[in-house]
Amino acid sequence: NWKMDSFIEKSVNDINRQVGNGRVVCGLSGGVDSAVTAALIHKAIGNRLSCIFVDNGLLRNFEAEEVVKTFKENFSADLHVVRAQDRFLGKLKGVSDPEKKRKIIGHEFIKVFKNEAQKISDVQFLAQGTLYPDVIESIPAHGGPTVTIKSHHNVGGLPEELGFELVEPLRFLFKDEVRKIGEELGLPKELVGRHPFPGPGLAIRIIGEISGQRLEVLRKADKIVIEEICKAGLYNKIAQCFAVLLPLSTVGVMGDERSYENVIAVRAVETTDFMTADWYRIPNETLGSISHRIINEVKGVNRVVYDISTKPPSTIEWE
Ligand code: XMP
């Protein structure tokens, strides 16, 4: 694809021009944007790139392990893995307000990242996978204040805190273009085609307070949702699909016994820009196997519901 090839070539030149002989640090999230950013920078400056991956304890099943494995298989760059699960979960204890969760996670991320980045000597640049829609969303309309529906705190504040110059090779691209570049750069298909995952992770998919036990339940349910969607050949047709834990108790029967347990909501959306979205019509048969498996395999859940709301007025995430 000549258009993507020429983008890569131009981008590599731009990075070299901006960075010179300097060193760059890049945060990896496990998603497409940060991986493509890292791959472009790696192509430009090789081992003068260091990557930092923070395991905040809010990732999906085995996600942290997969990120590390994929990285090692695809890059020769320096990778720092910070296991900070306890720190994040400790700070989130007793917190149920969604915006408070985001702020705490954002703050903690900056602290952990900064601490790790300072261990790497001679860094002057910070690479971020900012996309064009992120750029436009942060420009206030008519010069007025931006209305915060949900604060996307995972990146804000980091460059200022570190005093690094920003490198943002994707800032004029949309998600589908980033995916094409990722493919062109030879990144694995599963990584390039991954559904977006929010910075605050599973914390905003557990309504209310977060606990280790709730995270376990949600991870198991989420894994089943994704497995069944893949089995039905739908993963690449759906823009984003996941489970949400509703920690309210409802009555059920298990064998001869009455149960009183939690609800899992299944959310699947169709969208190109994530600003508006329609709920995806998952075939009944697949919904049936998702529900059957979750109720039978995940202890602590006795009911599964399907979210049939469009954005707007609902949002994609529940918090
Ligand atoms: P909503 O729920 O606002 O989501 O319709 C739109 C898209 O943004 C993602 N999202 C986030 N991503 N930090 C992120 O990095 C956040 O705090 C956050 N909140 C929502 C969401 O997953 C969807 O793709």
Automatic annotation (TrEMBL):
Gene Ontology CC annotations of this record:
cytosol
Q: Would the keyword Transferase turn up in this protein's UniProt record?
A: yes
Write the Enzyme Commission number(s) for this entry.
6.3.5.2
Instruction: Please give the pathway this protein is involved in.
Output: Purine metabolism; GMP biosynthesis; GMP from XMP (L-Gln route): step 1/1
Question: Which amino acids does the record list as binding ATP?
Answer: S29, G30, G31, V32, D33, S34, A35
The alphabetical list of record keywords is: Aminotransferase, ATP-binding, Glutamine amidotransferase, GMP biosynthesis, Ligase, Nucleotide-binding, Purine biosynthesis, Transferase
Domain GMPS ATP-PPase, chain residue ranges per copy: 2-194
Q: Which of the seven top EC classes does this enzyme belong to?
A: ligase
User: Catalyzes what?
Assistant: XMP + L-glutamine + ATP + H2O = GMP + L-glutamate + AMP + diphosphate + 2 H(+)
State what protein this is by name.
GMP synthase [glutamine-hydrolyzing]
Q: Which gene encodes it?
A: guaA
